[in-house]
Amino acid sequence: MGRQNKNHWETVYETKNPDQVSWTQEMPKTSLDFIHSFDLTKTAKIIDIGGGDSKLVDYLLDEGFENITVLDISAKALEKSQKRLGNRATKVNWVVSDVTEFEPKTTFDVWHDRATFHFLTTTEQVEKYMTTARNSVTGYLTIGTFSENGPTKCSGLEIKRYSEENLTAELKKGFEKIRCVTQDHLTPFDTVQNFLFCSFRRQNNRTKK
């Protein structure tokens, strides 16, 4: 997505507080519900894609998870999370990277993505994302995107909206859908964004074509 996109997100996180961006959640309940549904051990390796300054990492640490990675294109976003967590930030692996350029050095039991995937608007970007996910996910993947009833833009950028069928089709090569839910997210500006959240299981031996 390039330098221009990185500069966009660095500016967003440098100039705006959590109550000034639409995606802020005080408690990421839907994400946590999906992660809990995977029946993980506390040593499970979890990566939060595009985690920014989300509080998901706080809750995962509170629950005793020991192997958490947070990836974001914005170093400034991760710095905000690190400052908020204080000494606990040392328990987390922080990665500054565009997800389409991410080259993991390990595998993950859970790949969590709330609102990064829908910024990938070209076939090439989606394929790079999916190749990385197929190569590094050994357990589960959960994605939250704007639904067909959601906005067409986020943070001034075009996004790609998904139906349950479309999202499942994008992931069918390597991942089997477990379940999907839709949810209205109330932004700090009292507007509503309709999200689609789906969970998938990695299919290793019988990958669909």
Mean pLDDT: 85
Q: What is the name of the CATH architecture?
A: 3-Layer(aba) Sandwich
- Biggest sheet descriptor: 7 strands, mixed
Can you tell me the overall shape? Answer: globular
Report on this structure.
With 209 residues, the protein is of the alpha/beta class. It has one domain: Vaccinia Virus protein VP39 (Rossmann fold, 3-Layer(aba) Sandwich). It contains six helices and nine strands, in the order ααβαβαββαβββαββ. The strands form two sheets. The chain has a seven-stranded mixed beta sheet, with helices on both faces. A two-stranded antiparallel sheet has the order 6-7. The longest helix is centred in the N-terminal third of the chain and has 14 residues, at 2-15. The radius of gyration is 16 Å and the shape is globular.
Write the layout of secondary structure elements.
Blueprint: H1 2-15, H2 29-37, E1 45-49, H3 56-62, E2 67-72, H4 75-85, E3 92-96, E4 108-114, H5 123-136, E5 137-146, E6 153-154, E7 157-158, H6 164-171, E8 175-186, E9 192-202
Parallel strand pairs: 1-2, 1-4, 2-3, 4-5
Antiparallel strand pairs: 5-9, 6-7, 8-9
Tell me briefly what this model is.
This protein is an alpha/beta fold and 209 residues long.
Any key phrases for this structure?
209 residues; alpha/beta; Rossmann fold; seven-stranded mixed sheet; two-stranded antiparallel ribbon; 6 helices; 9 strands; 30% helix; disordered C terminus
